[in-house]
């Protein structure tokens, strides 16, 4: 039996006597290479092992987490949790995950090559990026990790999970009269980063962005959002609206909308942990069986996503992050999609531009997000392509694109075919009507 | 393991790294103990105590850092990580750079009046409940959140230059957050103190008023109009002024952005970059401020860096590496999120200095504009010299009077153009704590602040 298994079992044993108890352990090995100023600046090798225990007696609860640093760590974790529960006021009764049989087969999220990664492999990948880019790379990182976890609880849950995580974040810079910047990311489970494609994209973005001009005026137009921008905007709006905890507390705009139309009829989204994606799994991090479920079908809201805290868990209680293995054991499970897939259309991005009379294709926002409660957004455009009568007529920056994502998702004009993974969401390029662009 | 034994392991790790060829090496341990209580609508949502930490070994090969980490002081594990650090630092580059670390010594405790460890957990839970219950002033407040959290961080660092130092950091945070709804819309507001002081932060605060204020203001925002858009006069409040300091100029003044010539402020020392009224600092020594540190994560004492003096750009923040690359002294800005994360140049408390106006005078003197009220978040743009600052809400100002509230909106523009347009600053300067990521991760605790500040910038908000 591994140290991880021993620690989780002994922690749960120590919590016998409480109405509800849970122990979660995680071990990770993480390798990272950093590029700074177009040279390899740091290489890291990190090992992490940690434990969280939770228990409840009726409505009183305790919780603690520790880094496993020796033989006494499990006892220390239990001691702290017991000290906490002694002070806990009464609240609503707490119940952790119920045991259940697997509902899907292994999504294939383990890549043996990640387990065997050495600093030399990372060096070689970083150097290939530098060599293929053709412009400066002021900042980039490639991080790969193995993650092995186990969760047990007093209801009979006892499940393990293992996965590999491969993450890359890359920036580029073109040094002209006006500098230009490019950004690319990679989210996956296998060591299949398309380094040369990323290098080429970074170079193109940086050169295009260097030619951008500040937008002047104020106009209404269509917005075309590629996956790298749209993913975060959908997660902060649609992701928040289907989050069972937000529904439970009445702060989701869609709290009463199951069975109703919330989006254009061409929009379908499915939470699909059956395919390789950073958080795909057979059981969630609380031990509830995961499953494939339609969230929006033909524009109609079908279900919310829930963890055990919400009740009637859909297997979406997650501690792990889609980009970072470190620290997962410290996090209380929260509702997350495991792999929210937006059904793609059949248009290329070029064809979408051709079919747009007046619009902007946003290559990069400063920070793509919408307000969780209202869906409002006003976002700084770092690089956008202005479209007139089906053609790109200029590159703009230093302007604000404004709108509302809950309105936008009801005003979808076109859906592209370029389905791309960004974190826990996989989306194609989409075009929406009703945005506004303002500049000086 | 006793502290002396742990320190001995750190010394052995540094010796091992030097023996294996590291030009410079340090070993840093960190234990972070966190306690927190969060309530929602009068019920406990979360009550937690946790203890995390580890040992970070760092070897400088002359042009590259190698890192290794261990989760315990187990001698074998730490020495294995030390060997990995040296292996990771190997590089055949002909360029060799010597670092000039400060030699720091001693055992430094946090400067707090009431150490959180001395306070019963019941009182901490009660603080969260008090913040929550104080928000129950109106049925339109559908979510009342009260939160208390404390962090006690114990650091130790040994390096090959002779440093042997340990220090403690304490942080205490309270927050009330209200969400109000009227059947059509939902809006939020928040309030609460944060500090590197101890539990006196809670005992000295009027929790009842903090909670009631959050609820009152969330309700007010329900009647807010959509924010106007275009290039206009903006009066930023101290929180948004701080966000501008941090995003517009702060990130671009981090030494690593300069050594790789990514920042629009590269070679800017001595240049006019703002109105004569503008002076700006990064100061890790502000007593009690959320971003204050006694030492950075390389063992360099925190310092006060003047970034802009009366509109003229003065200089950058540095880690050991960036200071050596530019031939200057480190400024105590080499920070890491935790023992598992890399050290690089980060801000501490970043703020604009005061002017000589009263807030009300400044509003009365404004013909048409928008007054900001609290920030949401922001994003830097060192390459393009722009920024993005999201405001929680604001007020329209017409003919010297506040006319009505407006919903969340965003500010943007060219940093130098905006700071050059500043024509009035208030006497009052406030700092507000938060978290700062660099790029997309590596979160460290900082504060930002400044006076009420009037300038021209692009404004826009969604419906």
Your description of this structure?
The complex is a heterodimer of chains A (440) and B (463). Chain A is 21% helix and 38% strand. In chain A, the strands form four sheets. Chain A has a six-stranded antiparallel sheet. A six-stranded mixed sheet of chain A has the order 11-10-9-14-21-20, with helices on one face. In chain A, strands 8-15-16-18-22 form a five-stranded mixed beta barrel. Chain A has two domains: 3-209, PmbA/TldD superfamily (PmbA/TldD fold, 2-Layer Sandwich); 213-254 and 263-267 and 343-440, no CATH class. Chain A is an alpha+beta fold and 440 residues long. Chain A has nine helices and 22 strands. Chain A has helices at 3-14, 73-87, 112-115, 119-133, 195-210, 227-241, 244-248, 349-354, 405-408, and strands at 20-36, 39-57, 60-67, 139-153, 158-174, 180-188, 213-214, 218-225, 269-271, 293-297, 300-301, 317-318, 334-335, 340-342, 358-365, 376-388, 391-397, 399-404, 412-415, 420-422, 425-427, 430-438. Chain B has ten helices and 23 strands. Chain B has two domains: 3-222, PmbA/TldD fold, CATH 3.30.2290; 230-460, no CATH class. By secondary structure, chain B is an alpha+beta fold. The mean pLDDT of chain B is 95. Chain B starts with a helix and ends with a strand. In chain B, the strands form four sheets. In chain B, strands 1, 2, 3, 4, 5, 6, 7 and 8 form an eight-stranded mixed sheet that branches. In chain B, strands 12-11-10-15-22-21 form a six-stranded mixed sheet. Chain B is globular, with a radius of gyration of 23 Å. Strand 2 of chain A pairs parallel with strand 3 (65-70) of chain B, so a sheet runs across the interface.
